[in-house]
Write a structure and sequence with these properties.
Strand order of the largest sheet: 9-11-10-13-14-15
CATH topology of the largest domain: Rossmann fold
Order of helices and strands: EHEHEHEHHEHEHEEHHEEHEEHEHEHEH
Helix content: 40-55%
CATH superfamily of the largest domain: Thiamin diphosphate (ThDP)-binding fold, Pyr/PP domains
Number of strands: 15
Strand content: 15-25%
Shape: globular
Structural class: alpha/beta
Largest sheet: 6 strands, mixed
Number of helices: 14
Radius of gyration: 21 Å
C-alpha cells in the first residue's frame, strides 16, 4: 500500500512493522514526530508496545538499554543535541552488544542554535560502536529502519544501529512511501530471540560489569570483529530485502561511473539533487559520475576502493566538518584509497551545513574546483556557499 507520509513517520512505521516492544523517548526537533506517531499507534491499539516517556535523551537511551537487556526489541529516536547528550550511553549500548535501533533526524549541533539539516550529530558519534545508515528518501528511511533490526539482531553482529533522515528535507517533507504488509515484514524479520544472558529476577546476572585491564581489550576486540562481520550481514540482508520487497540497496551505489573522470560522493538527501545535476552534466558532455554512500559504519572501504580507483578526481560532498582537518567522509575515503599505487586526487567539499540549500549552483562551484584539480593543485578542503570575506573580517584577517 502506498501512503503519503513524512520522514519521521517512516521511522515510526518501521518500528510498528518491526513489532518493536519498548520505545523510550524524549522529544527534540526535528525527530519529535517519531515518538508522537508511535504513541498514537499504541493509543489506537495499532501497536502493542510500551511507550516510556522520560526526562531526557540520556534517560531515553538508558531505558532502552534496560529493555533490550531484558530481551525485547527496542527502538527510539532523537537528533542533534539529544544524540550528543546520549554520548556516554551510546558506548554502553554497543559495549553490551544490544541491538537497539535509533532513528536520527540529522540536525546541526549548536552553537549557534540551529535546527536544520547536517550530519554533524551522527558523525560526532562515529566511534561509539553503532552502525550508521543514511537515507536518501522517506522510503529509504522506512526500509533501512526495518532492515536495521535484522542486521543488528543477527548473532554475528549484535550491535546497535542508527538510521539518519535529514532534518526537514526528509523528516517533515511528505513523500509517497510503499508500506509493506505486516505479514511480509514478520516473515522477513522473525521474532526477536536474544543471543545473550538477559535480565531475569529468577536468574540474577550482571551485565556491563567492571572490566579490568586484563579483560577490557578483549571486549573491544569482540566489538571490532562484530563490526567487520556486519559488512557481510548487511549485504545478505539487503539482498534478502530485494528478493522479498523488490527494492534494491547497497552499501555503496555507483551511477554513471564507468567512464567518469570526476566522481561526486554523497550521503543522504543531497544525493537526489546531485543525481539530477550529474544527469544534466552528462547531457552537456561532462564525464561526471555519482557515488552514493548509504552505510558509513561499518565503512565500506573495499567497495569504495573498487569504484573510485579509476577516477581522476574524487569530489567528496559532505554535511559535516572535523575541525583541524576536514570532513569525516573525506578522511575515511583518503584512508581507504591509501594503498592504491595510482590514486585519484581526493578533494573535500564542506557543503550544506546548518540546512543551507544545496543547489545546482552549489554543485557547479564544486565541479569547477574538481575540474581544476585534474590539471593543477587545488585546496584539499573547500567550503562551498560561504561568505568568506565576512568571516575573514570578523576573524581580523582582512
Amino acid at each position: 500500500m502506498k501512503v503519503m507520509i513524512r520522514g519521521n513517520e517512516s521511522i515510526a512505521y518501521a518500528f510498528k512493522l518491526a513489532r518493536v516492544q519498548v520505545v523510550p523517548a524524549y522529544p527534540i526537533t526535528p525527530s519529535t514526530l517519531v515518538p508522537e506517531k508511535i504513541s498514537e499507534f499504541i493509543a489506537n491499539g495499532e501497536m502493542k508496545a510500551e511507550f516510556v516517556p522520560v526526562e531526557s535523551e540520556h534517560s531515553a537511551l538508558s531505558a532502552a538499554i534496560g529493555a533490550s537487556a531484558k530481551g525485547v526489541r527496542v527502538g527510539t529516536a532523537t537528533a542533534s543535541q539529544g544524540l550528543a547528550l546520549m554520548h556516554e550511553i551510546l558506548f554502553i549500548a554497543s559495549g553490551m552488544r544490544l541491538p537497539i535501533v535509533m532513528g536520527i533526524g540529522n540536525r546541526a549541533l549548536s552553537a549557534p542554535i540551529n535546527i536544520w539539516c547536517d550530519h554533524q550529530d551522527m558523525m560526532s558519534q562515529r566511534d561509539a560502536g553503532w552502525m550508521q545508515f543514511y537515507a536518501e528518501s522517506n522510503q529509504e528511511g522506512l526500509d533501512l529502519g526495518v532492515m536495521a533490526f535484522k542486521i543488528a539482531e543477527d548473532e554475528r553482529v549484535l550491535l546497535p544501529a542508527m538510521v539518519g533522515i535529514d532534518a526537514f528535507v526528509l523528516t517533515h517533507t511528505v513523500e509517497p512511501v510503499e508500506l509493506p504488509e505486516q505479514k511480509e515484514v514478520d516473515d522477513f524479520l522473525g521474532e526477536f530471540v536474544p543471543h545473550y544472558v538477559t535480565l531475569d529476577p529468577e536468574k540474577p546476572a550482571t551485565l556491563g560489569s567492571f572490566g579490568f585491564p586484563e579483560h577490557y581489550m578483549e571486549f573491544k576486540y569482540g566489538q571490532w570483529i562484530a563490526m567487520e562481520r556486519a559488512k557481510k550481514v548487511i549485504d545478505e540482508v539487503f539482498s534478502k530485502f530485494e528478493e522479498k520487497f523488490g527494492r534494491k540497496y547497497a552499501k555503496v551505489t555507483p551511477e554513471f561511473t564507468e567512464d567518469a573522470d570526476i566522481l561526486l560522493v554523497t550521503m543522504g538527501s543531497m544525493t537526489s539533487t546531485t543525481r539530477e545535476f550529474v544527469k544534466r552534466m552528462r547531457e552537456n558532455g561532462k564525464k561526471v559520475g555519482l557515488v552514493k554512500l548509504t552505510v558509513f559504519r561499518p565503512f565500506p572501504k573495499e567497495e569504495l576502493k573498487e569504484i573510485l580507483k579509476n577516477a581522476k578526481v574524487v569530489a567528496v560532498l559532505e554535511r559535516n566538518i572535523s575541525f583541524g582537518f576536514g570532513g569525516a567522509v573525506y578522511a575515511e575515503i583518503s584512508s581507504a584509497l591509501s594503498s592504491l599505487k595510482e590514486k585519484p586526487k581526493i578533494v573535500d567539499f564542506i557543503i550544506g551545513l546548518g540546512g543551507r540549500d544545496i543547489t545546482f549552483k552549489s554543485l557547479e562551484a564544486a565541479l569547477r574546483i574538481a575540474e581544476r584539480a585534474m590539471k593543477e593543485e587545488v585546496d584539499e578542503i573547500n567550503w562551498i556557499d560561504v561568505n568568506k570575506e565576512a568571516v575573514l573580517k570578523a576573524e581580523g584577517l582582512l
